[in-house]
Write a structure and sequence with these properties.
- By secondary structure, the protein is α+β, with helices and mostly antiparallel strands.
- Among the domains are: 95-153, no CATH class; 480-631, Glutaredoxin, CATH 3.40.30.120.
- Helix content is 36%, strand content 24%.
- It is built from 21 helices and 25 strands.
- An eight-stranded mixed sheet has the order 3-2-12-13-14-11-15-18, sandwiched between helices. A seven-stranded mixed sheet has the order 20-19-23-22-21-24-25, covered by helices on one side.
- Strand 21 (516-521), helix 17 (525-540) and strand 22 (544-551) form a beta-alpha-beta unit.
- The two termini are 39 Å apart.
- The protein binds flavin-adenine dinucleotide (FAD).
- Flavin-adenine dinucleotide binds next to strand 1, strand 7 and helix 10.
- One of its GO terms (molecular function) is FAD binding.
- Keywords: FAD, Flavoprotein.
Length: 638
């Protein structure tokens, strides 16, 4: 693996934190190591970091802290720190990193058998063979480039937005390219961190003034760690123009005073795209794209890493079952049919968010589309006529005339134009039409419509589903649902077994340690019958499965007998009692279903099947049909 320590601050949404929560307490580690919420909950719009605040938006609500919709809150954490935590977790389960210098002449096969993670290796060639993929990984051995060959059955391409593997596999991207070119400046300044912590704490600072514009991302105010994003327009402005000195000067213009301790660590260009891979697998399904290799969004709304982690979560249990011979090979296709629509939808949302972010400068008279048009006109009219330096002068001259719109002279309450613009800005911010941080309707409410699930039991029409999507999207709210393909809604429950009494989330009913299916049932005769059939068929298929019996609050029976007699001889079940938030909302009401339904939950906490138990005549054959569909088995296998 080649290894880039991206200096990106990540907003981690509820769904990703739920996944991290089950990964050996990773979410807890993030919560401990992240900066305090009060230092990052706001986006601030200002003329400089010490100049006028044009507006600010607080993106955290009380219910985020009360954990109403999820057992865990959102977080804000730098990507490279997250990678370090992940590597620690991998060490904990026996995987160890090693670099070309540590390896010497050792055989690749031995390294793989010893669970070594080969750092400093870059996949540079792939070749499809009868058994899988023969991969070439180049590495620098004491100054000379060498190549190591590896055989693998499957190759997961998680090599980022510029994915070499994707290109080698001949998979193209679809969507909009080159939306914006930016320079990312990673720098430290404890003085600036201290100043912002006390004067105007926030995560994102959108700064517009006559000398410069930029977006400052505060990774960690306590440690004074920042990344500045500056748009640039080649070929008039080139990446090489952004020397350390130039970047320091821009920082001073945006801060409004000169922090004495600015230390620029890294300057990198990047290009914003809005694209999704035409397909998620290639080379006879031997290559599988994951994360940015499969999709690249504008980083507006924090969907990139979150979507990537959720791709991996979707794929992991399917791979586990496939490699253990429990699922059929076509389960891999369900990875694409489930995740690609999510990526397409998140791409659209990110573009929409990017436009919402741009509505603020546009309102202030700094319309980015005008900047792009000016740039295009210069490219087409002057591009081949006058030298680059002169074009640069013209472009920057025009930009500087544009930036005069945000001078104190214009942007003040006494100037009629300025006061109108400020009033418009206030309404954009108050009405939630600027860039938002949280998208619960999409983060938690996304739903798989086709894939490793039994979709036909879902009675609603496609039209109704579309209508529901619009309602959720326009309110931005997450509405819990037990529809097939949805994430299992969170609710607190109390376990009733004498050995382990405690309060947990319904999401904890699904094991984080093994690939296990869970059937949630109410204590009803027909539901118990289906539960027994499910446990029996799962055992036949060598599939790990568990039943969860959901008792209403205060059930005496549950405490006295539990489900022992109804589920005997099976012991892989748990009795839990609802702890509804509002006294009239049972688990089934929260899920908007009647309690004679049974709900089958997949190892990734998505609902695979829901059925009214009264409607099932032959429980065994119904469960067989359900598993064969979810696991993509053929007739002989069931
Ligand atoms: C400015 C900015 C802000 C962002 N903010 C957020 C946010 O708040 N929330 C969010 O969810 N997302 C955010 N993102 C998006 C997020 O950073 C990406 O979606 C995420 O990093 C993708 O993870 P990945 O593992 O797929 O790819 P990467 O993080 O790019 O990792 C790919 C890895 O593969 C390695 N590699 C590359 N080529 C090869 C090769 N040939 N062989 C072997 N290894 C290779 C690289 O060195 C790297 O280590 C942001 C992005 C940007 C640019």
């Amino acid at each position: 693996m080649e290894f880039t320590r991206h200096p990106r601050a990540h907003f981690i949404n509820n769904r990703t934190m739920e996944i991290f929560r089950k990964f050996d307490g990773l979410a807890g580690d993030i919560e401990k190591a992240q900066p305090p919420v009060d230092l990052w909950r706001k986006f601030v719009y200002c003329t400089s970091l010490s100049g006028s605040v044009l507006g600010s938006v607080d993106h955290m609500k009380q219910e985020d802290f009360d954990k109403v919709i999820s057992p865990i809150s959102v977080a804000h954490f730098s990507q490279y720190k997250l990678v370090d935590l992940l590597l620690n977790k991998l060490e904990g389960i026996g995987f160890h990193t090693c670099f070309p210098d540590d390896i010497g002449g050792r055989l690749t096969r031995d390294l793989v058998l010893e669970n070594k993670i080969l750092m400093g290796h870059e996949c540079s060639s792939i070749q499809l063979t009868d058994e899988g993929i023969l991969l070439g990984a180049s590495f620098n051995n004491g100054g000379t480039m060498q190549e190591r060959k590896l055989h693998c059955g499957l190759l997961l391409a998680a090599d980022g937005a510029k994915s070499t593997v994707r290109e080698l596999a001949g998979i193209s991207m679809e969507g909009a390219r080159d939306l914006q070119k930016l320079v990312s400046v990673h720098f430290l300044s404890r003085n600036l961190g201290k100043y912002l912590s006390s004067e105007r704490p926030g995560m994102l600072f959108f700064i517009f003034n006559p000398d410069a514009i930029g977006v400052l991302v505060a990774h960690d105010l306590e440690h004074g760690e920042f990344v500045l994003q500056i748009p640039f327009y080649p070929p008039q402005q080139m990446f090489d123009d952004f020397s350390i000195k130039v970047c320091e000067q821009i920082i001073v213009k945006l801060v409004g005073w000169e922090p004495a301790d600015v230390q620029v660590l890294d300057i990198k260009p990047w290009v914003m795209h809005a694209e999704v891979a035409e397909k998620y697998t290639g080379c006879n399904n031997r290559v599988i794209l994951v994360g940015d290799a499969a999709h690249r969004f504008p980083p507006a709304g924090g969907f990139g890493m979150n979507t990537g982690v959720q791709d991996a979560h979707n794929l992991a249990w399917k791979l586990g079952l496939l490699l253990n011979g429990v699922a059929g090979p076509s389960i891999l296709q369900t990875y694409e049919s489930e995740r690609k629509p999510v990526a397409i939808s998140n791409t659209k949302l990110s573009v929409q968010n990017f436009k919402a972010a741009m509505s603020v400068p546009a309102t202030l008279g700094l319309d980015p589309t005008v900047a792009n048009s000016v740039h295009q006109v210069i490219n087409s009219s002057l591009g081949s006529v006058i030298p680059r330096n002169l074009q640069k002068t013209v472009l920057e001259g025009l930009f500087s005339i544009g930036r005069a719109q945000v001078s104190d002279y214009i942007l003040n309450e006494k100037n009629p134009i300025g006061s109108l613009r400020l009033a418009r800005l206030r309404s954009i911010l108050d009405e939630g039409k600027s860039l938002q941080l949280q998208f619960p309707a999409e983060d938690l409410g996304f739903r798989y419509e086709k894939g490793a699930l039994v979709a036909e039991d879902c009675a609603e029409t496609a039209q109704q589903a579309e209508k529901l999507k619009h309602i959720n999207r326009s309110s931005g709210e997450y509405i819990p649902s037990a529809k097939v393909g949805s994430r299992l809604p969170h609710m607190l429950v109390k376990t009733l077994s004498s050995s382990s009494e405690g309060v947990l989330s319904t999401m904890d009913l699904v094991s984080g340690d093994k690939v296990q299916f869970v059937l949630i049932v109410a204590p009803l005769k027909k539901s118990y019958e289906l539960a027994c059939a499910m446990l029996k068929i799962a055992e036949e298929l060598t599939l790990s499965a568990k039943v969860c019996v959901m008792w209403p609050q205060g059930s005496v029976d549950a405490k006295v007998r539990g489900s022992r007699s109804e589920l005997a001889p099976w012991t892989n079940y748990v009795d839990v009692e609802e702890i509804p938030r509002a006294s009239d909302n049972s688990w089934w009401e929260t899920c908007q279903v009647s309690k004679n339904k049974v709900i089958l939950v997949r190892p990734d906490e998505h609902i695979a099947w829901i059925k009214e138990s009264d409607m099932v005549r032959d429980a065994d054959s119904e469960v067989r049909r359900v598993f064969s569909q979810i696991l993509c088995l053929n007739r002989q296998q069931v």
